[in-house]
Amino acid sequence: MSDAIKKDSPAADTVPAPRSGDGKEFLSVRNLSVHFDTDDGLVKSVDGVSFDLKAGQTLGIVGESGSGKSVTSLGIMGLHTSERARIGGEIWLDGEELIGAGPERVRALRGQKMAMIFQDPLSALHPYYSIGAQIVEAHRVHNKVDKKTAKKRAIEMLDRVGIPEPHRRYEDYPHQFSGGMRQRAMIAMALVNNPQLLIADEPTTALDVTVQAQILDLIRDLQKEFGSAVVMITHDLGVVAEIADNLLVMYAGRCIERGSAEKVFYEPQHPYTWGLLGSMPRIDREQTERLIPVKGSPPSLINVPSGCAFHPRCPYADVPPDNITRTERPELQQVSDGHYSACHMSREQRDRIWTEEIAPKL
Amino acid sequence: MQNRKTAAAIAVAVAVSLGASACSGGDSGSDANGGGGNAKADAALTSIVNTTDKKGGTVTYEHSSGPDSLDPGNTYYGWVQNFSRLYARSLVTFKPAAGKESLQVVPDLATSLGKASPDAKTWTYTIRKGVKFEDGTEITSKDVKYAVERSNFAPEALSNGPTYFKAYLEGGDKYKGPYKDKSAGGLKSIETPDDHTIVFKLNKPFADMDYLAAFSQTAPVPQKADTGASYVQKMVSSGPYKFSAYDESKGATLVRNPEWDPKTDPIRKALPDKIELKLNVNPTTVDDHLLNDVSTADVAGTGLQSKTQPKVLVKGSEKAKTDNPYAGALQYMALNVNVKPFDNVECRKAVQYAVDKQSLIDSIGGSVKGDPASTVIPPTVAGYKKFDLYPSAGSKGDVAKAKEHLTKCGQPKGFKTTLTARSDRPDEITAATQLQGSLKAIGITAEIKQFPSDKYFTDFAGVPAWVHKNNAGMMMMQWGADWPTGFGFLDQIVNGSAIKPSGGTNLMELNDKVVNDLLVKGIGTVDTTARNAAWGEVDQKVMENASLVPLVYRKNLLYRPDSAANVTVTDAYLGMYDYVLMTSTK
Amino acid sequence: MAAYIIRRVFAAVLLLLVVSAVTFAIFFLVPRLGGQTLDSMAAQYVGKSPDPDVIAAVKKNLGLDQPLYMQYWNFVKGIVVGAEYQFGPDPVTCNAPCFGYSFKTHTEIWPQLVDRVPVTLSLAVGAAVIWVVSGVAIGVLSALKRGSFFDRLSMGVALAGVSLPMFFTGLVVLALFGNGEYVPFADDPIAWAGSLVLPWCTLALLYSALYARLTRAGMLETMGEDYIRTARAKGLKERKVVVKHGLRSALTPLVTIFGMDFALLLGGAVITERVFSFQGLGAFAIQGVTTADLPKVMGVTLVAAFFIVICNLLVDLVYAAIDPRVRLS
Q: Which residue spans traverse the membrane (chain C) (predicted)?
C-alpha cells in the first residue's frame, strides 16, 4: 500500500504480518466448504472451492443466486456467525491461515487487512448514525487515534471517492445520499484502513446503469492506486467483463470453470458458462435474436443432483457416454494454462459445440 | 429433558407458595397475646368477650370503602352513628351492654331520657353541667339546637343524613336552615330557655322521640366552628377522643380529648389511647388483617366477605372467634297491590305459601346468612312478636295450600309477572332465582329483571308509574330500620304515606287505613309496653294483607381477632360490635 | 423547533377541551338515554329515602338544574379563573385551577388530585424502571441466545406474565407477603421504597414480560439486518455490534410503546392501586365512578389526558432525536 498514508500509527490489535509483494499469492483459498446444519438437512452452500488471487489483481466470481458466491466471500471474511455453519478447507491471507486462526484474530483483520462492500448501501449502512461517524468508527476500531484525526481521515476518504463537499456531507445520514453517492461512501468506509483485500459483493446491482459505470471506474482507480487485490462478486457478466483479470464461475456451490477473463469469455469450456454468455444482453447483438436463458432453475443445495450438478439443465448431458454425467461428478481439469473446467465432455466435443452452435448465436 | 427441569421448577414454586400461605394464615392460633382465645362462637351475642379494664392500646378499624361522612350531622350509616359516639355525645344513646340490654336507650349528654308532654308532642331534655368541647368551652343547649338545625335543614351543604327532625318538628317545612336564615332565633320549634334545657315542639304525637334523640344529629356543634360541608375536616369533639388526623379517603386518627371529664360520662370507659380508622382498604385485605390479628375490627359491621366465611367456619379454632348476630334487617319480597293479579289477596296468599324459604337460605350460603322469616319486624327490634300466618313444614313452603289459594283468586293455572332485583347484590339475585323456581312449581312464571342499587328506588321499583307500566308485581327488597323500634322499622315500608312518585320504599303500595291508623295511634302512645304491642298488631295486619312476603331475618358473620377486647354485639346498631366498648390489647 | 412546540401545545389544549366535553356529555347524557331524570340524578348524592326539599337543594347547589352547556362553561371558567361556591355559612373561594368540588363530599377536587399524583407517580416511575431494565435485559439475552434453555424459559415465563391478569398476580402477592401502607417519600424515603416494592414488582411483572418479548422480537429482527453484517465486517467487537448497532435500532419502537404505557399508568394504575389499597389517581377514579361523582371523574380524566398528551409529545421528540429519518424539517 502507499507509503504516504503510513503516518497512521499501527493498529493496536493487529500483529504485524509479512506483506506480500507483487507476484506472490496474496489470497489462497483451498477447498473451502461452508455447510449449514438446518432442520431440513445439511445445506451445502459451498462445497469445495479453490482459487488464488495476487495483489493488484481482480477476480470476478459469477453465478446464479444460490450458487454460493456470497457465502464464499462471507466465509473468507469470517462472517458466518451462526452456530449451524460448518466451515472446512483453508484460507490463506498473506501467509496466514484464517479458518484455524480463531474468531478473535479474524476480527482483528476484518476491516483492516480485508474489507467488504455490500449490495444495497441503504440497508447496509446504519440509518441512525451519520456517514462520517460510521467511517470514523471503522477507522478507530483498528487505529488508536483521537476523534479529530479520525474525522480528518474520514473526510479525506469521502473526498477520495469523489463525494463533493465532504466537510458538509460528513454529517449527513445515509438516507440523505443518492444511491450512487451512498455506495461511494460505503467504499470510502471499506478502504479507510487501506485493506489489501477488497471484496465487493454485487456492488452495483442496486444502482442505475449510468452510476454502475462510475462505481466500477472508482473501484478500478482505487485498486490501481493502492495495489489491493479485489474480489468482485456478481451475477452480471457485463460488470465483470469491465474489470476482472480472472473469472471463477460457480454452480451449486462448486467451481465449474476458472481462468483468465479473456479465456473464459472467448473460449468458454462449460455448457453453463455458454448459458451465462447467451443470457447476457449485448448491444452489438441483433435485435431479432432472443436471449437464450439457461433452462430450468437452480438446484437444491440439500439434495444436490447426482453426478454433474448441472446435468438436469444441460442440453448436452447425454453427450458423454455411459450416462456418466448422471453418476460421476466431474472434477476441474486443466484445459490450457490457468484455464480449468469441470465437464465430462472432451475438449474436442466442447470446442466443436462452441464454434458451431453457440458462438454464432451470440 | 427441558420438560423435566421445567416441571421441577414449577413444583418447587408451588410448594414454596403453599408453604408461605400456610405460614401466614396460621399464626392467629397462638395465645401469646394473653386471653382472647377461650371464648366460644356467638359469645358476643349475649356477653362481653375478653373483658378488661386496662387503659391503653390502639384500636385499628378498617373499611373497604368509606363513610358518607364522619360528620355526625351528615351521615346515614349505622356504623358511623355507632363510631361517632367516640367524639360526639348525643342527648341519649343506646346502652353499651351485652345482649338485649343493648337495645336500651340511656341518657348521654342529657341527664335523663326525654320528658314528654301527655300528648307526646313536646319533649324536654336537660343537659349535664360541666361537659366541655375539646377547646374547653362548655356545651350548652344552643349547641345541640344548632346541630339539629344544620343536619336537617341545610341540604345545600349537608344532604346525607335522615330528615326525621325536619318531618316532625313544627314549622320544619318552612325553616330555611342556619346558613340561609341568619336570624338569632333559628328554628322556633326548638326552644332553649336556658343553657341546659332544650325543648322540642313536634307537629304530631311521636312517642319514639328518645330514639330520634339518640341520632348522632343531636351531638352538639359549636356554631362559630361550623363551616358547613368542610366542618368534617376540623370537627370539635364532645367525646373522650378528638381528631389528630383526618383524610377523606385515607381515614382518621383519634387521640384522647383532655377536656373530656369521665365524671360527666357514666357510659364510656374510654380505655384505648388511640383509635385508627383506615378507609379504602381492599376488602380481601380487610378480612386478612382480621384473621391475622393485624386490625381490631371491620368497622362497616357487615361481617366477613362471602368468600372468607367458609375458610373460617371449617376450622374450629377460627369459628370460635365468630359471632353470627341478627343484622336487624329483613329480606323480603314486595307484592304490589296495584299490579294484577296481586290486587287479589288470595293470589298474594298463594305466594306466601309457595315460597320455600329454607332452600332460599341454603342457596345464599346457609344459616350463617339468616333464619327463615315469618313476620315483618325482625327479632332484635323492639316490638317483635313471634307468629306465622302461613306456616309450612321446615319453612319449605306448602305447594298444596298455595294452589288452593291460587284457585280461589281465579288463577288456577298460574300467571305471568315480573320480579325485580338489584344486579349488584349477588345474594339478592340468587334469592330471586330460587324464588323463581318455587313459583314455577305452582304455575307462576316470574321473569327476573335486574337493576343497579343506586337507581333501584329512584328509577324503577320505587317509582309506581314504572312499576305499573312494566307489570312488576314482585320486587325484591331488604330493609333495616333507622332506629330499632317497630315504628322505625315499619313506617317507611307499610305506611300509605310512604308511597312516593319516586324514591319511595313502600314497594307494595300498601295503603290500608287500618294499618295507617294503627301506626299513627301507636306512635302517639307514650307508654312503652303498649306502644310495642301496637307494633306487633301492625305486623299482624300487614301479614294478613299478605302483600309483604318475609323471607330471611338477615344475619352477619362477624369476626373478633385475639387482640380485640370488650367485644359485644349491639342490636341497636344493626348487629355490629359496640365501638364505645371496644378496645385492644395491642 | 419553537413553532413546532407551540403548535403541539395548542393542539394539546384543544384535545383536553374535547376530552372534558366528551366526559361531560357521557356523564350527563348517557344516563338520560337510560331513562334517568334530573331528580333521580340528584338523588344519587343524598342519603337514602330523601325528601323532595333535599333533592331540590342538591340539584340547585350542584348546578344540575342548569343547562348542560352552562355547567360546562362554568367548569371551564373555574379551571381558568377559579370559582366561588357555598356549602355552609360562608362562601368559599376556589382558586384557579378550580376543578370544582366533589358532588358527594363538597371538598375541592384539585388539592385531592395534587395529593394523589405523587402516589401514582411513585408507583409508575418505580415500576417503569424495573420493567424496562429487566424486560430489555431479558429480551436481549434471549435474542442472543435464541433457542437456548434460557430463551425458552424466559419466554415461557413472559407468556405467563403477559397472560396473568393483574388482579390475580396482585392478590397472590398479597396473600404471600401481605402489604404495608404507602409512605410518602418526604416522610421517610426508605419506608417509601419498602411500601412500594410489592406493587412495583407486581406491576412490573406484567410489563416486563411484554417488554422482554418485544425486545427479543426487535433484537432478532434487527440482528438480521444488513447493517449488522456491515458492522461486523468492519471488525467491531461483537458486544459493540449488539449494543451500539443492534440494540439501538431494536429499542426505537419500544420508545413509542413505553411512552403510551407509562402515560396510561400515570392516569392511574387502577387495579394495582385497588389491590394494594393505595390512594392514587386510579383509586380516585374508581371512587368517582362508583359514587357517580362527576368532578372526581372529570379531574382524573383530565389529568390522565394531560399526561398522555405530554408523554406523546416527549415520545415524538425522543423518537426524532433517535431516528434521523424522522426528523422534523
A: 9-30, 121-144, 156-178, 190-210, 250-271, 297-322
The verdict on C114 touching B (C-beta cutoff 8 Å) is no
- Please state whether at least 3 CB pairs lie below 8 Å between chains B and A: no
Using CB atoms, pick whichever of C229, C234, C325 lies closest to residue A141.
Answer: C234
Chains sharing 3 or more CB pairs under 8 A with chain C:
A, B
Nearest by CB to residue A116, choosing from C233, C323, C324, is C233
Q: Specify the CATH number of the domain B326-555.
A: 3.10.105.10
B167 vs C contacts (CB less than 8 Å)? 51
- In 3D space, the residue among B81, B255, B460 whose CA is nearest the CA of residue C36 turns out to be B460
Cell numbers that stand for B574 in this block: 344493626
Tell me the residue type at B217. Answer: Q
The DSSP-derived string for B64-131 is SS--S-SSTTS---HHHHHHGGGT---SEEE---SGGGGG-EEESSBSSSPEEPTTS-EEEEEBPTT-
Cα dihedral: B229, B234, B238, B241 (round 10): 130
Chains that touch A (3 or more CB pairs under 8 A): C
Hey, are the CB atoms on A118 and C230 less than 8 Å from each other? yes
B454–C292: do the CB atoms touch at under 8 Å?
Answer: yes
CA distance A126 to chain C (A): 5
SS (H, E, C) B360-416: HHHHHCCCCCEEECCCCCCCCCECCCCCCCCCCHHHCCCHHHHHHHHHHCCCCCCCE
Assigned C-alpha cell, A333: 481439469
- Check C178 against B292: CB less than 8 A apart: yes
Q: Is some CB atom of chain B closer than 8 A to the CB atom of C92?
A: yes
Domain assignments of chain B as residue spans, ordered by start? 7-276+557-584, 326-555
* Cell matching residue B55: 387503659
Distance (Å, whole) CA C299 – CA C307: 12
Q: Do B155 and C57 touch (CB under 8 A)?
A: yes
Residue A153 banded pLDDT, cuts 50, 70, 90: very high
Q: Which among A113, A128, A142 is the top mutation candidate for probing chain C, defined by the most C β-carbons within 10 Å of its own β-carbon? A: A128
Kindly determine whether residue A128 and residue C234, on different chains, have CB atoms separated by under 8 Å. Answer: no
Residues of B in contact with C61 (CB under 8 A): 155-157
CA distance, residue A118 to nearest chain C CA (Å):
8
| Full pLDDT tens readout for chain B, 586 residues | 444 554 444 444 444 444 333 333 333 433 333 344 568 899 999 999 999 999 999 999 999 988 989 999 999 999 999 999 999 999 999 999 999 999 999 999 999 999 999 999 999 999 999 999 999 999 999 999 999 999 999 988 998 889 899 999 999 889 999 999 988 889 999 999 999 999 999 999 999 999 999 999 999 999 999 999 999 999 999 999 999 999 998 999 999 999 999 999 999 999 999 999 999 998 888 999 999 999 999 999 999 988 899 889 999 999 999 999 999 999 999 999 999 899 999 999 999 999 999 999 999 989 999 999 999 999 999 889 999 999 999 999 999 999 999 999 998 888 999 999 999 888 899 999 999 999 999 999 999 999 988 778 888 898 999 999 999 999 999 999 889 999 999 998 999 988 988 888 899 999 999 999 999 999 999 888 999 999 999 999 999 999 999 999 999 999 999 999 999 999 999 999 999 999 999 9
Q: Do B229 and C107 touch (CB under 8 A)?
A: yes
Contacts of C187 (CB under 8 A, 6+ apart): none
**CATH code for residues B7-276+557-584:** 3.40.190.10
Q: Which residue of C has its CA nearest to A129?
A: C324
Q: Tell me the backbone φ, ψ of residue C79, rounded to 5 degrees.
A: -65, -40
Can you name the residues that pair with B93 across neighbouring β-strands? Answer: B106
Provide the pLDDT for residue C8.
83
CA dist list (Å): B582 to A87, B238, B296: 83, 19, 9
Residues of chain C positioned with their CB less than 8 A from the CB of B489: none
